[in-house]
UniProtKB/TrEMBL annotation, chain A:
Residues 12-243 form the ABC transporter domain. It holds the Pfam family ABC_tran. InterPro entries: AAA+_ATPase (IPR003593), ABC_transporter-like_ATP-bd (IPR003439), ABC_transporter-like_CS (IPR017871), ABC_transporter_ATP-bind (IPR050166), P-loop_NTPase (IPR027417). It comes from Marinomonas foliarum. One of its GO terms (molecular function) is ATP hydrolysis activity. Keywords: ATP-binding, Nucleotide-binding, Transport. Belongs to the ABC transporter superfamily. It comes from the Bacteria. This is NitT/TauT family transport system ATP-binding protein/sulfonate transport system ATP-binding protein. Coiled coil: none annotated.
TrEMBL record, chain B:
Residues 84-264 form the ABC transmembrane type-1 domain. The keyword Cell membrane applies. GO terms for biological process: alkanesulfonate transmembrane transport. This is Sulfonate transport system permease protein. The keyword Oxidoreductase does not apply. It comes from Marinomonas foliarum.
């Protein structure tokens, strides 16, 4: 079991959450009476095969989609729609190409009404956090995929969310940058003390980053299961406990 | 002593080195220039030579020097100045009005789907109807004066910028809009900070076509029903067999087209440095 010492901000609970889509006149039940509780400041990874509803769940948690029934509460308050304590990081960095890197990072704050100078000062700090201070004045298209994604992360963190929602944020990166970004994410998470909910199709990434893993199976398959990852950080991918957990997940859920 | 010699040798080598490099650079520049403007130079030189040598009828296609001196005379004597002024005024007002109405209307129509859907059929109808075919109607409605001329130019120049703006707004990446929404941006903020900057490249494409269209319609309208203006001068010169003057007027109009395009391209580069 994970150590439950203090209750922090950013506790998420999902109760009886259901969501379906109409697809070609047929009803597609994507989420069925889902229950999750995630302590504030922890990391939840959502894994499962493509098309199983990971993105749908994340979008409902973000408030970008409304659930059919059930509810999402954050710090015991029910949330509906978008709100400021949650920030979303998508698979693509979604930077505004006409803004410099610095202006992209301060965009969220400016949009929320922070005066430009204050927003820029915070943005500079966040760029330092993601180690991109030299690129403040660069255009987004001058960045590599990993750098652009870090800018996106800096933009999300700049608004000081309690909960960071990430949809396969490293999915488009090559294997090498992926591993270094996983280390970066762990460091950023530790420094920022934020709750993270992260979708990934990479089992190893899930075990490396998360305190809990929600394993989803194909639509209409077995219901999702929540699993604790009780390894000390920094985690070692070759450690026997790490390997054992991965092995267990792979056999138990038929994941690859 | 020996070091001094070495130094001078090195210096000379260095100098000749840069000289060679500079020669290379100049050769590169000249070749580049020829690659771009070579055919144009060949075209005008052949024109000049063929006309002076009498290989072509110089009464119909006069040599360039006669055309340029006619142009120079027209401007310095003040004979053309009135025509230039009135033409620039007509095209300028019409173009500015088309941009001033087309851009805001396009931005609104691109954002509000029902409005766009309701207006699209009538826009397509108007657009496909030649503005010149409608000119007689505009004359009936607005008289033979300036208003009908400016209006027909405005009418034709409106559609390119309007449709390009609508297209630009509709093509704004929905993912960027969603991103802005997750930060709590209001519709107005999203419009100002995402939709507008994202549409600027398309708007400029439209503006450039509108500028070209405005000049085209200017000339047509002035040829049909005017007694002043560069379009009138082209017809009038031809009528009076002032052939060099006719070419001079044509060249001036071509120059305006190039200039308008150049200004718009420069302005676009300025506003869209991020995409360069
Ligand atoms: N807006 C939508 N309309 C209809 N069907 C959708 C929509 N979004 C997702 N789906 C369907 O829901 C299922 C789950 O999709 P998604 O959550 O994107 O899966 P994942 O992220 O796990 O790959 C898929 O079958 C997909 O086709
Ligand atoms: Mg997905």
């Amino acid at each position: 079991m994970t150590t439950l010492t203090k209750t922090e901000r950013g506790t998420v609970s999902v109760r009886n959450l259901s969501k379906s889509f109409q697809l070609n006149g047929e009803r597609l039940d994507v989420l069925k009476k889902l229950n999750i509780t995630l302590e504030g400041g922890k990391v939840l990874a959502i894994v499962g095969p493509s098309g199983c509803g990971k993105t749908t769940l994340l979008r409902v948690l973000a408030g970008l989609e409304n659930p059919d029934s059930g509810d999402v509460t954050i710090d015991s308050k029910e949330v509906q729609g978008l709100s400021r304590e949650r920030a979303v990081i998508f698979q693509e960095p979604r930077l505004l190409p006409w803004l410099s890197v610095l202006d992209n990072v301060s965009f969220g704050l400016e949009v929320q009404g922070t005066p430009k100078e204050t927003a820029r000062a915070s943005a500079k700090k966040m760029l330092k956090l993601v180690r991109l201070s030299q690129f403040e004045q660069a255009w987004p298209k001058q960045l590599s995929g990993g750098m652009a994604q870090r800018v996106g992360i800096a933009r999300a963190l700049a608004v000081q969310p309690e909960i960071l929602l990430l949809d396969e944020p490293l999915g488009a990166l090559d294997a090498m940058s992926k591993i270094s970004m996983q280390e970066e994410l762990t460091r950023i998470w530790q420094e920022q003390n934020v709750t993270m909910i992260l979708v990934t199709h990479d089992l190893e990434e899930a075990i490396y980053l998360a305190d809990q893993v929600l394993v989803m199976s194909k639509l209409n398959g077995t219901s999702p299961r929540l699993l604790d990852i009780d390894l000390p950080r920094p985690r070692d991918r070759s450690h026997q406990d790490f390997v054992a957990i991965r092995q267990k997940l792979m056999t138990e859920f038929g994941l690859h | 002593m020996s070091t001094a010699i070495k130094n001078t040798v090195r210096l000379r080598w260095y100098k000749t080195g840069t000289l060679a490099a500079q020669n290379g650079l100049w050769r590169h520049r000249i070749l580049n220039f020829l690659a771009v403007y070579g055919l144009l130079i060949v075209f005008f030189s052949s024109w000049q030579i063929a006309s002076t040598q009498g290989w072509i009828n110089s009464a119909v296609i006069p040599p360039l020097d006669r055309i340029l001196s006619a142009l120079w005379l027209g401007i310095t004597s003040g004979a053309l100045l009135d025509d230039i002024a009135i033409s620039l005024q007509r095209a300028g007002i019409a173009f500015l009005a088309s941009a001033g109405i087309g851009i805001p209307l396009g931005l609104i129509m691109g954002r509000i789907r029902p409005l766009e859907r309701a207006l699209d059929p009538i826009l397509q109808l108007f657009r496909q109807t030649s503005a010149l075919a409608l000119y007689p109607i505009f004359i009936l409605l607005l008289g033979l004066g300036e208003a009908s001329k400016v209006f027909v130019i405005f009418w034709a120049a409106l559609f390119p910028v309007l449709l390009a703006t609508i297209g630009g707004v509709k093509e704004v990446d929905a993912k960027l809009l969603e991103m802005a929404r997750t930060y709590g941006a209001s519709p107005l903020t999203i419009f100002r900070r995402v939709v507008l900057p994202a549409s600027i490249p398309s708007i400029f494409v439209g503006l450039r076509i509108s500028a070209t269209t405005a000049l085209l319609l200017l000339i047509a309208a002035e040829m049909i029903g005017a007694n002043k203006g560069m379009g009138f001068q082209v017809m009038n010169a031809q009528y009076n067999f002032q052939i060099p003057m006719m070419y001079a007027a044509i060249f001036l109009l071509a120059f305006w087209g190039i200039l308008a395009n150049l200004i718009l391209v420069k302005l676009q580069r300025r506003l869209c440095r991020w995409s360069a």
